[in-house]
Structures are given as structure tokens and as C-alpha cells.
Amino acid sequence: MTEIHAVTEIYSDEYWMRRAMDLAIQAQERGEIPVGAVLVADNKVIAEGFNHPITEHDPTAHAEIIALRRGGIQLQNYRLLNTTLYVTLEPCVMCAGAMVHSRIQRLVYGASDMKTGAAGSLVDILRHPGMNHKIQITGGVLAEECSAMLSTFFKQRREQHKALKKLKNQQQELS
């Protein structure tokens, strides 16, 4: 008689970050800043999201906020205990605050954000001594790939703006 053992694969931080990067691509395809987020518990996806503040006209529609909102609905609880949030870009202050309130256990992010990062690059909301909940942080997972995606997006955006400005100037000269 042979025994059957259930094989449960434990996925790595890199695995989940690649899933977040796939979501970031979806944001980019919609003209949004390419940021994706995946909320995981017990090695399973609870919720995911990607940036869409531009298309939704909603300044709070960041990938992290979308994933946290959907996670709360999925778990039927605003406290997302024992979860890990994977996000391609270090969270801003708004998203970091939402993470503290949601009580996630851990944050894993890809690219650091020196201008608005609230997980240690600019400020550290997640481990601030005044906060009533501390979050474990792992930064720099697939950082080069996440950074490259963002750099490419902003380079293309700058080129588009230049081309539009040039076209506008040419039209003005013709008038």
C-alpha cells in the first residue's frame, strides 16, 4: 500500500513579486504608473490590485489600497492579520498608513522610492515608534526589474510629452 502525501509548494517572495509585476503591467497597459500588489495568506492569494488613480479619477486607487480593500471583503474583516502584501514599489504614506490600520504582518516591496517611500526611504511609517502596529519589512525583492519597469514607463511618458509639445509648437507656427 502506497501512501499519498499532499505536496504543498511554498512560494518564494520572488514568486509573489513576479505576480505583482504582472499586475503592474496591467496598470501600464491602461496608462497608469505600473505598480501591482498581491495580498497573500497561508501561501494563497487573498486579493490583488494595480494602480488606477488616473482612469478612476481617484487619488486613493493605488495598487496597495485596492488589494487591502479587496482583502477585507474577501476575509470579511478590516484586520488582515497574518497576511503579507507584495508590492512592486515602496508604499507612499497613504498606503503605509492603510497597512498599519489593516494590521498586515509583513510588507515585501521591489523598488525603493526615494521621493515618497514610507517604508524607510523617505520616512518609516511602518516602524514608527508612535504606531500601534509594527510591520515586518523586506525591501528590494526583484528591485532591478521593478525599477526598470518604472524607469521605462516614465521615460516613455516624457518622450510622449516632448512629442506633443513639439507638435503643438509646430501647429502654432503654422497658424
Automatic annotation (TrEMBL):
Cofactor details (free text): Binds 1 zinc ion per subunit.
Its EC number(s): 3.5.4.33
InterPro entries in alphabetical order: APOBEC/CMP_deaminase_Zn-bd, CMP_dCMP_dom, Cytidine_deaminase-like, tRNA_aden_deaminase
Gene Ontology BP, a term: tRNA wobble adenosine to inosine editing
Catalytic residues (positions): E64 (proton donor)
Family: Belongs to the cytidine and deoxycytidylate deaminase family. ADAT2 subfamily.
GO MF terms, alphabetically ordered: tRNA-specific adenosine-34 deaminase activity; zinc ion binding
Subunit-level organization: Homodimer.
PROSITE patterns: CYT_DCMP_DEAMINASES_1 (PS00903), CYT_DCMP_DEAMINASES_2 (PS51747)
UniProtKB keywords: Hydrolase, Metal-binding, tRNA processing, Zinc
Residue span, CMP/dCMP-type deaminase domain: 11-122
Cofactor(s) this protein cannot do without: Zn(2+)
Function: Catalyzes the deamination of adenosine to inosine at the wobble position 34 of tRNA(Arg2).
Residues the record lists as binding Zn(2+): H62, C92, C95
Catalytically driven reaction(s): adenosine(34) in tRNA + H2O + H(+) = inosine(34) in tRNA + NH4(+)
Segments crossing the lipid bilayer: none
Name assigned to this protein: tRNA-specific adenosine deaminase
NCBIfam families referenced in this protein's UniProt entry, alphabetically: PRK10860.1 (NF008113)
